[in-house]
Give the backbone structure.
Amino acid sequence: MNELLQTVAGPLPVSAVRGPVLAHEHLALDLTRGADRAATLTPGHRAAITEELAALRREFGLSLVIELTCRGMGRDVAGMARIAADASVAVVAATGWYYEPFHPEELSRTSAERLARTLVGEIERGCGGSGIRPGVIGEVGSHGDLPSEPEARTLRAAALAATATGLSVATHAQFGRGGLAQLELLTAAGLPPHRVSIGHQDLLDDPAVHRELAASGAYIAFDTVGKESYQSDRVRLRLLLALLASGFADRALLSCDVSRHGYLVSEGGMGYGHLFRSFLPRLRAAGVDEETIDGVTRRNPLRFLTGRDGPAPAAGGRPADGPAQPAGPPR
């Protein structure tokens, strides 16, 4: 279990994260394929992103963003570091490989063991010579009910790197499908389920699958909150309430997955704050208490990141003067 989080500014004590965490976001990425030129968050959007995060820190105490842009997704860890510093919000960067359409050519010729060594190198020495070390592996992806052969290799590589370094793994399950197969593959490679978050489960209207994943010990990511074109928040709320009612409040993670510039508030989108301004009020109106909300927005993501499989970090108040500072420089 890790008592320090590896952020883009260096190690940060878990106890310093006293406000909510966004469990799956993007601050800098490029997912353009074919005619889709809008799936970007570029340096030109950095000021708007910074202002959104700073406003959420001031209004809601936002303390940490888990940034799941990995290799092949236009990752920019230096840009993340500038946003984190300017917004005074801690950011955890990621490594890994996304799902198959975004795989670089060389993956077709590389074993899972060799891929794992690449990830371990980034985790130990930093991304691309930057010295900025990732603190999570993800969003490692697949599409369909079963991973393709290249996706299975990258998932296995993620599990091997995670067991070697102590990091946890967040997945991309396209439209919520394939989570059980992802978990089976990751755990078969030696990764405990409590160090796995299965992504995009709010896009899968199947409470039985959510219960099965949660009963195994994995985290269930309701991480596309506000993306009404994929799923209505009304359905997301129903699915989350069903998971809570089944006794799995300690397995749920929440976020908005801002993955294109059109989602930014400055461009008329829902923004990173939709979770706090719209969805959590609806959760409270449905009778969910503040202790549970603190769990799904703070304690659960911290337990996921640290690999803690027991009591969550003790609750704390909102930071009075911005987020706590990292424990040291990037390593």
Notes: The chain has one domain: 4-305. Confidence is low (pLDDT under 50) at residues 311-331. The longest strand covers residues 136-142.
